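User: Batch of two.

Assistant: Item 1 of 2:
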Amino acid sequence: MTRVVAAFWLIFAVVGILPSRAIAADVPTMRVSVSNDTVGVGSMFRVTANVESSDEAPEAPSLGNIRGFELRGTSASPSQMTTIINGVRTDRRGLNVVWTLQAERVGTFRIGPPVVTVGGKRYAGQTISVTVVPAGKAPSSPAPPTVNRFDPFAGLFPHIDDDVFGSNEPQFQLNPQLALERPRGQVVFLHALADKTSAVVGEQVTVSVLLYADVTAGQIPIGDVHEAAATEFIKRPLIADDAATVIGNTRIGDRIYTVRLIRKWALFPLKTGELEVGAMSLSIGNRGGAPAVRESERLRVHVTEPPPLGRPAGYASGDVGRFDLSSKVAPRDVQQGGVLSVTIELSGVGNLPGAITPPARAGVEWLEPQIRDKVGIVEGDKFGGRRTFEYVVRMKAAGEIDLGAIVIPYWSPDLRRYGIARTDLGRVLVKPNAAADEAAANDKKAEIFTDLPPAKASLIGAKRAPRGLVNTPLYWFGLVAAPALYLLTMLALAIARAVRRRRAARAESPEQAFAQRIRDAETQAKSADARGIDGATLRALRAATVQAKDVESAVKEQVQRLIEECDSARFSPELIDPEQARVRWRQARKLIDAMKVKR
């Protein structure tokens, strides 16, 4: 009987208690807090909501009513916690949401309630009451906000005091060297800068791109990144593209920005001139609209060559920096036709030369090298490292052979002078080898006679070269006759031009022009066009005055009066009688005869 009673109570506990716990667990919990319940106009504060659910993950948070405030930023971070107690596993999903608000006017306002969605259902939290007082009247030391142990942003900005939100004077560690005259965009913008605006070909120009973000903006999604184009430079990264670093905070206008270094390159100019570094761009999330694009400045660098004065022989454009050379040759004793290994190590600061020129020696053949690089940052922001050239060298001639030296002249921008990196390869002993010597001789013959035709077995009779046109009389006649014909043609053309000029001069003589005017007037007088008759009369009188000499004063006065009458009649608005015009022409004829003009 005792066992039956115990089993009954066990079943009751399982059926009655566990379902109640499961039902209770399905209801999410939300805790809402505010960083300061009394703030000044223009001050910013935070409203935090911590949501936990044993069902699906909370999503789609909304703060609700924010009348009297401006939403300056929102950040949300999901979380998940799993606990196992006595073999029983419990999963809790959470969502931490932080809204940053700025007070707009004086009064007491209620914010919220905040709402989240869990499993398709919406759950609301409690409302928050905040009092807004005039600027500067808020408590100087507000109570610190409640810190949630699930807050993923705790400690993200260790340089910000707990009471920064809700205070009129946030306590930041500001770096004035990062400040700009004005922001280049709202909330987030890019700023590019170079460590120099002039350089020589091959000299390092360090370009940095900084990301400025308003400290009140919260998390802003960034995407669609387009790197800055630098086609006229060799581009070497100084930091990884995904290694953004906070380098400080600064104030621009009335806002405070966190500054991150997101790109840093070493650029080596490839040619002279005004070279351009393109703009880097990215897009930022824009609530309620399309993403906004942010773009950095375009930079220009004036590039020249190093000075020619003192330039060593063999200097190659672009070899700029500070270089050292070392070498290793092994073995130093080989058979003729054998090979040896030559390792040349080029190290230093700058854009290391990509190739070197081995010294030319008779009987020494340098095969293509194997190149190994170990480059990166070597001094501060300086790019450099080590480049190793591994050669296989075939020794074709016997004897003690001096391999010579490797020499690389370079220009040092720090010292403003030329330098020379040099390493001596030393001597090697090549022991004679008859087979190798014969092979080398055959190789030499093959090189000399490569382009010659094969030898003939016997000689044949010489062929007479065909007689060309150059040896014929026709050739010499054409050679002399062509220039003579050209000169005769030019002379004939010159004579024809002279004859035409004389004829034109005779045709345009004053006597002939005057005679033509008289003929024109006689012809016009026979027509019924009064204005035409007066015009012809006027032209004849003027031509006569040009030809006349020693004209009496009385005749001159009559000529002048008649000219005025003709001119007045031509432009008179009234209808002119042709007969009157003919009378004026007859008077003109008498005056022309009185002037005794030669025709």
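Item 2 of 2:
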Amino acid sequence: MITSVIRVDDLIGGDGAGHYPVSLYTDQSGGDPVAQCELPDPGDLETLRGVLLASVPNPAARLAAGRSLYQLIAGTAVGQAWGALLAGPDRIRTVFDMRAGALRTLPWELMLAPTQKHPFLDDAYGCVRGSFRPGVGPGFLVPIRVLIVVGDAHDPNLRASDEVDAVRWALREGLGAWHVEVLTEPSPDELVARFKALKPHVFHFIGHGTWEDGSPALQLGPAAANEPLTSYYMANSEVPAPRLVFLNACRTTSAAGPADAQAVGWGVAAAFEDLGADAVLTMQGDIASPSAVRFAGALYAALAEGKPVDLAVRSARRDLFRKQDDAWALPSLIVRRHPEQVLPWQLGPGVDRDAVVKIAKQEKWYTSVGQTVDRVAEHWALWDGPDVDAPGYQACLVGGEPEVGKSSLVRSCVFTWCLRGSQAVYVDVKTIKDGRTVSWVDVVRALVDALAGRLPGRAELPARRFRHQLVHLRQGRRPPTVGDDELTPDDNGPWEAETEEEGALRKELMAALRALLAEVAGGRPLTIALDHLARVLEHELTGYLVPGLLMPIAEGEVADVRLIVAERTKDARRLLGDFPMLARSCEVQPFRRAQAEELFREYSAMICRPYEGEWRMLVEQVSRLAAARLDPSDLSLLNRLARQA
């Protein structure tokens, strides 16, 4: 694909006799213009500028404006050279670099060619806006971090919850690849603090724009209730620039009217451009909330498919256009680099998503990953920050009462690590013997099997060597030294070393297990998650696994290995010795009943069920109950009840 840039510089001269310098470049022209010309001052531009601001859309006026805008460029020498490029054999992407302030705010998205084609809807043209700076942006591994800020949760006309639902619904198939956080009416300080901690790839604002001390701003909360977030404050707060900014914030709280709202939208967009965002998506006029919800859902669905941002925006525009929604031209995408480089997210090297999903399904925990709701802070505690392939801690204890979602949280974190190509394995002791009590040897075998299945290239041969040791040691004899082609396979028998050396043999096996873990790690971080350890015979857990495996890892004795243990708090304190004191604590609390609507909305997206009808009425009834507690299991229970209603 060839990228062409139509650049229009500021007006030279005035009083109706001025002109705008226009140049056409391509990424194959070596920095020299392909064509240049002068665009006469069109004079009064307010009619064109206001065509998207009318409270009642005028289709005829929009079509006329689209033809005028197309002819404004096409009728010049630059337009003719551009037309020749479009008629050539190569696909062309055109960037409209409108540096002239008077022309920048015109609705170029309405452009309409004589063929009745809108270039900004047509993939063959591929039109975007921007001050184009070619170059390859650094790629990044999943998860794609999205920060959604709801500026005014009290305005029913915004339908902010519906827009958040639409985003989550669109991303539901990308389990583990997207991390979405929602802040509702934060203060500027709270927002900036989260920005710096999260370093979002995507910043999505739902709310109103306003003016504050002459600076365009985003309103955080109802009018006059909270301080707004001004572009001045953002510029001086050293916040990291997102890759993509999505501003549904053109509605203004001032009384100056639609033109003022548009000025706020363009002003805030320019502030994020100056901050260094690679792309900014803003609204050129007041977009109705139903249209905003549809557009957001279609946009994120396309991004989740891996489409570059310009194709994703055009896909969302076409979705509105097909529904005969006049709002299709309101979103305006401004890019600074090749659109493919705005969100160049990747899975880890050599990672096959289908293979990761297959393993997760075989181990019977994929479904719970897809139904993990809310636990943003807990995810962050286990991941230990953004872009971390292994946590900085040696050990972490995920505690809490029964049924609060400890397992699904740990599974979700491990799943994302797997997608990143990190070395991470999860073992659920409860599934080893269908919920029955298991021995310490059962846990050892399950861990070794998980390593060999998840990391075959690094663990398969070491696992075979370990099993050779196990099969002999469990019978009370030292393993013979043999070649790798003569290793004895594990017979899955119980521990039978009933000799006076039994204790020494058991310690030898645990030492071999620790050596196996260090070998598999091989200088790279290896994270092991063990769940439901209380299912192990108590004396074997406290006497063998805790001193032989948990404590050495927690004390840093096993090179490059980290350990996460998920267990109910009271059992962990009773059974795990000093491990809880050495491990980082992540206590998972029950949901508050007051969160019911928010939680069920997110859960609805996860299970592909619209938040409406009997389902919505049932949730509203639950949110009014006196009991303060709500568990994740209540979500699926009420879902079943709603289906039966």
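Residues 502-521 form the longest helix (20 residues).
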